[in-house]
UniProtKB/TrEMBL annotation:
Coiled coil: none annotated. It comes from Vallitalea longa. Gene3D superfamilies: Dihydrodipicolinate Reductase, domain 2, NAD(P)-binding Rossmann-like Domain. One of its GO terms (molecular function) is nucleotide binding. This is Oxidoreductase.
Length: 325
């Protein structure tokens, strides 16, 4: 069977994770990479033995490319995905789907017209802890959600923004902590907790004077069933601390900290997933890229829907954009 041809647009930090996924999947072949930084594109192409270009339109017009990975700054995501679909390409799209509600709608419309796949890398939905939480909730033994919380305390120093042409600027990043780091936690608060009806709170910039966007956010959300959720996130912590989440149900609680998941039931705590961070393995947060990309490729191959749909990606992005309103 012919392999699917892959084109990558954007050869920055996240690309290596996508390359690993491409290398490990039997049915795909990297055809070309693209970056406006010609030196970068050329060096990746030499390593990967593929073509390189600096104009993404050449990726979209290449007849051997079937699937395009869009790994560019946020403001380019939706428009590049729309163009890719119009050129008949499937898309693997890094989060967020876009930076305003209008472009999310446009992308949704084109995707539905073309019937092509757009998979969005909300990879934390594939973490073993997430899958286990879904399973426990699905069993019906925990009952109704009462409260949830998500806490993100990470460290992004000044250089993280100053070394980048697009981070820290509203026009190109579309926001700060929430749209870049917080989107995964907010997505899981809804994916695990259920539909969110309202979300509001405060965003602030406490310790990054040179950027336009927020480094800290506090949000309160009301779920459709009346439960209340609280999110706190900051890029101003002294280190990258594991994500912590808690979901309190009528008949039990789920407590997540990185690779550990605790179920509290009948006044007893049980370590449901007891994995600990060892040398050589990574925090769960961010390690499920290969699983989600494999699922997107499988869905294209088998003409089925990916487990995380474009609608899921749009919804997570909408949640973030609602926080900014
Ligand atoms: N899913 C995750 O957990 C996760 C983690 C990290 C980054 N990301 C996302 O991946 C995307 C890229 O992030 P990054 O950290 O790799 O950024 P980066 O700045 O390191 O890389 C972006 C690359 O895109 C290139 N680029 C910019 N405009 C271009 C254009 N018009 N055509 C071709 N190339 C262009 C830049 O030159 C740069 O090399 C972002 O959307 C980010 O949010 C996701």
């Amino acid at each position: 069977m012919k392999k699917f041809g892959i084109g990558i647009i954007g050869c920055g930090t996240i690309m290596s994770v996508h390359l690993d996924s491409i290398h490990e999947y039997d049915g795909v072949e990297l055809i070309m990479v693209c970056d406006i930084d010609s030196g970068l594109a050329k060096s990746v192409a030499q390593e990967e033995r593929c073509l390189w270009v600096t104009d993404y339109k050449e990726v979209l017009t290449n007849e051997n490319v079937d699937i395009v990975h869009i790994l560019t700054p946020h403001y380019l995501h939706a428009s590049m995905a729309i163009e890719a679909l119009k050129m008949g390409k499937h898309v693997v799209l890094e989060k967020p789907v876009g930076i305003n509600l209008k472009e999310l709608e446009e992308l949704k419309e084109i995707a539905s017209e073309t019937g092509l796949t757009v998979g969005v890398t909300l990879q934390n939905r594939f973490n073993p802890t997430t899958i286990k939480m879904k399973e426990l909730i699905g069993s019906g033994k925990l009952g109704k959600l009462i409260a949830s919380k998500g806490i993100l305390t990470w460290c992004r120093k000044g250089e993280y923004y100053s070394d980048s042409t697009w981070r820290g600027k509203l026009a190109t990043e579309g926001g700060g902590l929430l749209i870049n780091q917080g989107i995964h936690t907010l997505d899981l608060m809804e994916y695990i907790g259920g539909p969110i009806k309202k979300i509001k709170g405060h965003i602030a910039n406490y310790s990054h004077p040179d950027i336009e966007v927020e480094d800290t956010a506090m949000m309160t959300m009301e779920y459709e069933n009346g439960a209340i959720g609280n999110f706190y996130g900051t890029n101003s912590y002294g280190d990258n601390s594991p994500i912590e989440m808690e979901f309190i149900f009528e008949k039990g609680q789920l407590q997540l900290r990185d690779r550990q998941l605790i179920l509290v039931k009948n006044k007893k705590s049980e370590l449901v997933i007891a994995d600990i961070l060892k040398e050589g393995n990574k925090s769960y947060w961010g390690m499920s890229h290969k699983l989600i990309i494999k699922d997107i490729y499988d869905s294209i191959k088998n003409k089925t829907n990916p487990k995380v749909s474009l609608e899921d990606g749009i919804r997570a992005t909408q949640l973030v954009l609602l926080c900014y309103q």
